[in-house]
Amino acid sequence: MKTLTKYLFPIVFIIITVTFGCRKNDIAPENYFETKINEVSKDFFVDEASMNKGITIIAANEITDVSRKTIIITINADEVGTYKQTFDYKTGVSISQCGLTYKIITKQTEDTPTFFMSYEGEVELSEIDMKNGHITGTYNFVLHSVPEDSKPYRISGRFIRTSFRSF
Description:
Distance between the termini: 65 Å
Number of strands: 12
Order of helices and strands: HHEEEEEEEEEEEE
Largest sheet: 12 strands, mixed
Strand content: over 45%
Helix content: 10-25%
Low-confidence stretches: none
Mean pLDDT: 84
Structural class: mainly beta
């Protein structure tokens, strides 16, 4: 009986430690940036994120052999909350607490990139960790090409514990 207890106690201890010992924050990814363009997942990576005087900017890129695609999210706040961008169709003015631009530069057309600008969308900042310099949230925007509005794009995704610089 003593021999069974001698081996059983450490096994039970290890099982309990492994099962209940992990904290949720320990397994959350860092510098994770997820994006979908018209419901197709893309591989964008955060190039830079910063907060300066109430303005938060997140810039992410997808670089391939033939093109470079850039998403820039601008949020007119550095606090947790939901920020919206809407378009007033009567005046033709975008009313903005946030914005998103999307630029595509291909090797064939580096001098004239395809450029998209948002009229409507929102960003939700769910966590800002000033001590560790991380920001977490989601975004969802409708974009139109400039100067033509012929093909709208929907860009959505999330960023988890993305590192930022604060000025």
